[in-house]
Known about the structure:
The longest helix has 25 residues. The protein has one domain. The chain is globular, with a radius of gyration of 14 Å. A two-stranded antiparallel sheet has the order 1-2. It is mainly alpha-helical. Helix content is about 75%, strand content about 5%. It contains 5 helices and 2 strands, in the order αβααβαα.
Amino acid sequence: MVAGALFDAGCGKTMSEEDCRRIGEAMRAAWAAEVKRAGPAEGSGKATVVIASEGERLSSEWTSDCKRELAGSEVDPGEIDCLTRAKTLEELRRCAAP
Length: 98
C-alpha cells in the first residue's frame, strides 16, 4: 500500500534507508496507538502480546521491503514527511493515497 504509492510518486527526493526506518517507526507507533485506542483486549494478556507482535512484524517487513525496493528511488518529499508524522493508521492511509 504505502510502498506502491511512494514508488509511483517519483519527484524531488531520493528515498534513503533512514527514511524507510523512520516511516517504519511511524507505522509501529500508529499501530500501537490504534491498539491502545481500541482498549484492553478481552481475555488474557496473550492477546495483547499477539497484537503487539503483529504490529512489530508489519513494521519490520515494510521497512525491509522499503530498503530493498524503494531506497535510491525518487519520491515525493511531502509524502515522506506526511508518513513520518502520521499518528494513526488512517493518517498513514491518507498520506499514501494516490
